[in-house]
Design goal:
The complex is a heterodimer of chains A (360) and B (330). With 360 residues, chain A is α/β, with parallel strands linked by helices. Helices cover 30% and strands 21% of the residues of chain A. Chain A has 2 domains: 12-261, P-loop containing nucleotide triphosphate hydrolases (Rossmann fold); 264-349, no CATH class. Chain A has 11 helices and 12 strands. In chain A, the strands form 2 sheets. Chain A has an 8-stranded mixed beta sheet with strand order 6-7-8-3-9-10-12-11, with helices on both faces. A 4-stranded antiparallel beta sheet of chain A has the order 2-1-4-5. In chain A, strand 11 and strand 12 (347-349) form a beta hairpin. In chain A, helix 4 (142-152) crosses helix 5 (159-172). The radius of gyration of chain A is 21 Å and the shape is globular. Chain B has a domain at 3-80 and 215-262 and 271-326: Rossmann fold (3-Layer(aba) Sandwich). Classes of the chains: A alpha/beta (360), B alpha/beta (330). Chains A and B meet through helix 7, helix 8, helix 9, helix 10 and helix 11 of A and helix 8, helix 9 and helix 10 of B.
Chain lengths: 360, 330
């Protein structure tokens, strides 16, 4: 876990300083905003090691991100490895401490919430992890894994109630309740992912961060899990933050999509708008690189190549973080940090050259 | 074009406790000079084992090659001695593996790793080998190759490491390159760059390329022909266009339909392939795919379907292949 050991979160002190003293009145936004993220930063200190006299460097994993998630919607979060999408998802749930900025969940400021407030919050907000092998305790029976949240939060009164709730959860995710007494290694990747979903659903949450929930699964199994997540969303009225690197999957499942690059959200739009007419040069390059399963289309398709590698998040370039690789960058791009601005009804972009961006 | 590699009825088995796992169970195919062949299948279908069998890299025990022939440049690779196969491996057959971090030696400089092959296979001197290494790094688009030679793998990003792997694979002038999931560990933008580079270099040097992948979507742009594997056997073979336009096995059809397409209509639900891939130690009788197949007949549970020629270049191992190809079963 990043929060411990070498990469220690250094954030507590700063969070205290910048935190809003009166969170419940300042959440802003309209009524159906469930999660409101304002200028969120999560930095990790690295590399000071034994050099006590030197100041540590900071990896700016998430560096000033603002967006909202509406109740009942799926917000897709895409980006390449190292762009900070997983860190962002975990900071929203305060599994990682933020460095500055605020996360409001239904009026509660998560970044400053007390222990008891957090406990309540964890009944409403849950996470599904990427790796169905690493995220289940191999020595616990799967029934106990799914039932543990019920015990932690005292959600069932009797043993009989506990057992019936666990088997209900198994049935909900399409697993056979009679398999409760088995261990994780007896299941395939897809089944384990179902168990992870059942565990997240045990506390009847409203909001789930799905952190790459299908990328470790075989292609033929991915569709099963995606369909399950969609069905559960309809039945249980869930809100998702769907973190993934696979743009085709994100397009399929999301109501809105946020594209991240090097700790910044560079574009937010509906799938139709984003895929038909991407506005940010990074989004355009990213979409052009996604392979299509059609040799004839591929033969004529233009790629927008990106030159070089992603810069180090230890030392991001000045101005727009994408300017070093951007095909349309001008001098201004290395001077001005573009804010995410709404340019159209269902699109926000952080690029000074984007259509409708206006003055900067 | 003549076929440079022919695999005939290859069977590679592994012993696991008291069962025999038939990882590759009777596959036959060929690769023509200079063409790109993709082998597609999910984890455990035997695609990597079939590649390792070609190179004589099956760990024995627990694995062994039960039967078959692998004819390369007129010789059966399965009958070569250890020292003879070592001359082929890395020499006339190059390799690119999935994990560029674990397939490069972390404590050896790039120079040593890159020159080892040409000195061994082509008998170059140290100076010649160095010149060749610089030339190869330049070719795969690594800037300032002379400085880079002294560096170690951890100095490079994933995409750059994979470029080094490609340079190494090409440096001995191979006839065939086997790339096992070459871009699975890479980001989508880097993936496109690496595949473009591999394809371009293989075309320029008239090298045949075998790409092993689990993702049917990735290879549409690059593959000339495609073999789709399921549970140790090839279930469909054809040109890329035939496979994508006219899939003729229920499994291929399922693979194509279960993945959302970037350019497709956003539909409400995906069509997954139900069930799980089978346990190779305990395969279902008849067609291995029958428990998950929407079109299964009674016959499918008892008889493994023989491979049907749909035309000269398109084959499918399914009792209802012709109906599926014609779209009747929709």
């Amino acid at each position: 876990m990043l929060g411990r050991g070498r990469y220690s979160g250094w954030s507590d002190e700063l969070t205290q300083v910048t935190a809003n003293p009166n969170p419940s009145t300042s959440s802003g936004g309209d009524k159906d905003t469930l999660v409101d993220v304002q200028d969120l930063k999560t930095h990790f200190s690295v590399g000071s090691g034994l050099r006590f006299w030197s100041t540590p460097d900071y990896v700016k994993a998430v560096d000033g991100v603002s967006f909202e998630i509406k109740r009942g919607e799926t917000l897709g979060l895409v980006g390449e490895s190292g762009c900070g999408k997983t860190t962002l998802g975990r900071t929203l749930l305060r599994l990682l401490e933020s460095t500055s900025g605020d996360v409001y969940y239904d009026g509660l400021n998560v970044t400053t919430a007390s222990k008891s407030e957090l406990r309540d919050f964890r009944r409403k907000a849950q996470i599904i992890f990427q790796d169905p092998y690493g995220s289940l305790d191999p020595r616990q029976k799967v029934g106990d894994i799914v039932g543990e949240p019920l015990l932690v939060h005292n959600l069932t009164k009797t043993k009989a109630e506990y057992r019936s709730r666990v088997s209900e959860l198994f049935a909900l995710v399409g697993m056979n309740p009679s398999h409760m007494t088995r261990y994780p290694h007896e299941f395939s990747g897809g089944q384990r992912q179902r168990i992870g979903i059942a565990r997240a659903l045990a506390v009847t949450p409203e909001f789930i961060v799905c952190d790459e929930p299908v990328s470790a699964l075989d292609v033929s199994i991915q569709a099963q899990i995606i369909n399950l997540l969609e069905t559960l969303q309809e039945e249980l009225n869930l809100t998702y933050l769907f973190v993934a690197h696979d743009l085709s999957v994100v397009r399929h499942i999301s109501d809105r999509i946020a594209v991240m690059y090097l700790g910044h959200v560079v574009e937010v739009a509906t799938p139709e708008v984003l895929y038909e007419n991407p506005s940010h040069p990074y989004t355009r390059a990213l979409l052009s690189a996604v392979p299509l399963p059609d040799p004839d289309l591929e033969a004529t398709r233009e790629r927008i190549p990106l030159i070089g590698d992603v810069p180090s998040p230890l030392n991001p370039p000045p101005g727009c973080v994408f300017n070093t690789r951007c095909p349309i960058a001008t001098d201004d791009c290395s001077k001005i940090i573009p804010e995410l601005k709404q340019t159209h009804a269902d699109r926000s972009v952080a690029c000074i050259h984007a259509e409708g961006y206006g003055s900067y | 074009m003549p076929e440079i590699l022919q695999i005939k009825d290859l069977r590679t088995y592994f012993r696991s406790e008291d069962t025999i796992v038939k990882a590759v169970d009777g596959i036959s195919y060929g690769i023509e000079q200079g063409e790109t062949l993709a082998i597609v299948g999910e984890s455990g279908c035997g695609k990597s084992v079939s590649a390792l069998s070609i190179l004589g890299l099956i760990p024995a025990p627990p694995g062994w090659i039960e039967s078959g022939e692998i004819i390369f440049e007129g010789r059966d690779l399965l009958r070569l001695s250890d020292s003879e196969i070592r001359k082929v491996r890395g020499g006339s057959i190059g390799m690119v593996f999935q994990e560029p971090m674990s397939s490069l030696n972390p404590v050896m400089s790039i120079e040593r790793q890159m020159t080892e092959g040409v000195r061994l296979h082509l008998g170059y001197t140290k100076g010649q080998a160095r010149t060749r290494a610089i030339e190869m790094l330049e070719m795969v688009g690594i800037p300032d190759p002379e400085t880079q030679l002294g560096r170690h793998p951890h100095h490079f990003s994933g995409g750059m490491r994979q470029r080094v792997m490609i340079a190494m694979a090409l440096s001995c002038g191979p006839k065939l390159i086997i790339a096992d999931e070459p871009t699975t560990a890479l980001d989508v933008t880097v993936q496109a760059q690496i595949l473009d580079l591999m394809k371009q270099l293989c075309q320029e040097n008239d090298v045949a390329l075998m790409i092993i992948t689990h993702n049917l979507g990735v290879v549409a742009r690059y593959a000339d022909r495609i073999n789709i594997m399921y549970a140790g056997r090839i279930i469909e073979q054809g040109t890329a266009r035939e496979i994508y336009r006219n899939p003729s096995h229920p499994y291929s059809l399922g693979l194509l339909r279960s993945v959302p397409r970037l350019d497709g209509v956003r539909s409400e639900k995906l069509e997954p392939i139900e069930g799980q891939p089978p346990d190779l130690g305990d395969l279902p009788s008849g067609c291995h795919f029958n428990p998950r197949c929407r079109f299964a007949l009674d016959r499918c549970t008892t008889e493994y379907p023989s491979i049907v020629d749909l035309n000269d270049s398109h084959k499918s191992a399914c009792w209802v292949a012709e109906d599926i190809a014609a779209g009747v079963t929709n």
